[in-house]
Amino acid sequence: MWPLINNDWIILIVLGASVAVLSFAVDVAVSALNKARLHLYTTAAETNIFAGIASWVLPIVGMVILSMIISQRISPYAAGSGISEIKTILRGVVLKEYLTLKTLISKLIGLTVVLPSGLPIGKEGPFVHIGGIVATLWCKLFALISHDDKNQNYYVEMVAAGCAVGVTCTFGSPIGGVLFSIEVTSVHFALRNYWRGFFSAVFSAIVFQLLGILTSNYEMLKIFSQFCMVCF
Description:
- The protein has ten helices and no strands.
- It has 232 residues and is mainly α.
- The chain has one domain (1-231): Clc chloride channel, CATH 1.10.3080.
């Protein structure tokens, strides 16, 4: 049982699925907050123009301030996109605090709060960081269960796969995710990481699309399942 748990491909499947679920959850939460903010503005604007202006400006300012407070209180290492830190980690520098559970929680909550504010902030950078954190946490958990200590290079390689998954969950492009992970590491990219990144990214894209189908159209889910049965 333990060799199976410690298998790299199992870890990559879990990595892809978990980041896809997190990405989908953020999208759902951001959509709900956006609808609430627009509903508040529409209701207030019908009263008078000043109430409309206040209901448009104050929620945006409040979201930005709340996101800043969350980052400072839970984990300051979650500030920024995280791409620069991931680049540094992939080049061999140990930055343990950037890959902790506290940083993951801070990043997810802060991102979910600030995205509906309308600021020009995308998901790509934060989810590259999130993908790297999730990859590290899963590797540590699997290593703990199987009592198999991994070296630092192994974690770095899995973080590279996490980068590919993070981009895939943002744009739905597994190939683009792998190419981005190559671009980030640029100096050296092991051949085995091509397949690791692509496998995990494809699985992540499938889970992300399935979640969208499940929550929007049951008939499309039936068509998708029939298509999968034909393929396999």
